[in-house]
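Dear colleagues,

For the upcoming journal club I promised to circulate an example of a predicted protein-ligand complex. I picked one with beta-D-glucopyranose because it came up in last month's discussion. The inputs are reproduced below in full, followed by the predicted structure.
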Amino acid sequence: MKKTFYILLSFFTLASCSNANSEENKKEKFIDSLLSKMTLEEKAGQMNQYNGFWDATGPMPEGDYQKKRYKELKNGQVGSMLNVIGVDQIRALQKIAVEETRLGIPLIFGHDVIHGYKTMFPIPLAESSSWDLELMEKSARIAATEASADGLHWTFAPMVDISRDARWGRVMEGAGEDPYLGSKIAVARINGFQGQDLKDSLTIAACAKHFAAYGFAESGKDYNTVDIGLQTLHNIVLPSFKASAKANVATFMNSFNEINGIPATGSKFLQRSILKEKWNYKGFIVSDWSSIEEMVAHGYSKDLKSAALSAIKAGSDMDMMSYAYIKYLNNLLDEKKISIDIIDDAVKRILSVKYDLGLFSNPYLYCNDVREEENIFNDRNRALALDIAQESIVLLKNDANILPLKKSGLKIALLGGLAIDKDSPLGNWRAKAPKNSAISVKEGLIKYNNNTVKFQKGPKLFKNPTFIDGHLNVNNTDTSGTYSALKLAKESDYVITVLGEHGLQSGEGRSRSNIKLPGIQEHFLKEIYKVNKNIVLIIMNGRPLDLSWADAHIPAIVESWHLGTMSGNALASILYGDCNPSGKLPMSFPRSIGQVPIYYNHKNTGRPGPSDYVFWSHYSDEKNDPLYPFGFGLSYTNFEYSNLELSKADERTINVKFKVKNIGNHSGKEVVQLYVRDLYSSQTRPVKELKRFRKVQFQIDEEKIFNFVLKKNDLGFLNDSGNLVFEKGEYEIFVGGSSKTNISSF
Ligand code: BGC
């Protein structure tokens, strides 16, 4: 019986393998045949991506710049477009590509669908605080559904850059500081966007970006130089990219920064040697916006032509907005600086993704009127946005269990302009979210408690809150509005004050050298504290902030990030205890800016201290540890970890068993975390490395046994060639509810 089953199983495996092979052969034949018909201009065209440049449903474009691009589009010299929004525009442009170009190759339309399309989910850093991979996959799927219903094929997400620097504005777009958590989240998001089959009209192609090390910009300044060693590159920066490649992400995007003297866009080492050769990646690489051209400013390329040469040789397949390939591939080939093979390889990769999306069978496959007319901003999507917003909130402080608040009988003062802001919670990459479409904190609270919540704005936080591309003007001096706010605070039992960053204060180009509450806010908070100490501080932000003063004085602090469409409802349900907070920080919060970059998985150094003498690795004016560590977040209940036992299955496998019990008075979720320390090794290892986690619901008094198995990969490290090294040695295993845990096997 067993044997028959085995034979049947192998038959099915063989059958499905041969189906897959024949589908692959069919695709290869199709692409080879198409390629054989293409002129060099058409090939360069496939490698050329333009930003949307005119209303495609209106008359022909005016002006030389527009006309030239329009002509190129009709000549088959454009392979992809970005930032073209809506089915009408996409259909009109696709029609030109399909009906008016010689070979009718469809365009692939990309857009930054980063944390939602119409329904906004928490910004990626916030979502990462949920540590809930299933929910993150679902939110990416909904974003894909809404984006594809609007005609789009491709998102420039997920951003899988690891970063340790809260000054860098783009930390909002990533998964924080840890390569293990970052890799898991990268895969969940890719699976969410892409699903099982790119042809499925509810999925879109994803893009792992920015390859590589963009998150290690010196001094946290966007686009700045990156200079890191191979250890950090292989063990910290690259794992999330490798996991993305393994998860078959359709595309990669390279990066603006130079790394160790070579712009990433021109780095053969990264793109060819590592990604395409070592990892055998078959998708295509798109440049970042004009990053090919920027190699001239980097001082790497003499001019645009030599930048084109470096980029193509390095393995950048598609040129986003540098006009480099369209202008120079022809000459470079004539001058024999490149071979046709290198171009063919890039074009094949691009055509292959178009094929996988099903665009050759139906170029209009996402331009479906019925779907467009469906109400996609619907209840189901909003329900998931609420779920994930709730899971993303991190309770940072809750002295004397001030939270949850009683639902009745309390006079509550709600203070701060962000409490009525319906736009900031939408976050930085709001795609097509209607303006002001988030539920504000005030709206959320009032549903619970209309009579006893009173609002005062306090001083203005920002002078030009409707800005998009320019600089935000922060109010540093104007205190008007403070008096009425303080009067209300004085008359109330509790004050809920909402402070933090504007929704567009983090993100690309939004680095900060000061990560305190912006402008007048801390002063305002101190004034409130003078009249009423029962303060619940809600922080809205896109990066870790310096909350040291607040932590020393304010009894309850709730980290809400920019939570998306359902922001206010999610926060209200947490404040009133209908939902128990369960988020954990994916990035350390420094005590002050001088500690940055700060991260839990640092090395021990030769002088770890502490010592009574000055000669150990420390500051004379600041503690070493962060204010809130990676993995940290409180709950309304408490969890007890015990009975940690290790057993060795073999020389390379450790079984880790322990018990967790809910010992508090609420049911709730805990993110159970396991860290490893390799005590000595031929390459020094971090003091802790996250290796497993699980988010689990516990009823009151419930206890659960956890069994984690650690294998060679979890115990080893990557050497300077990126190869796994596993050495016999001693490992300390930690378990607990944050990276600060000292419950260990020793
Ligand atoms: C960003 C990318 C983004 C691209 C297209 C660039 O400025 O760095 O992450 O995908 O623009 O909008």
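Two points we might discuss: Residues 266 and 310 are 5 Å apart (CA to CA). The pocket of beta-D-glucopyranose is lined by residues 82, 112, 156, 209, 288-289, 508 (CB under 6 Å).

See you all on Thursday,
B. R.
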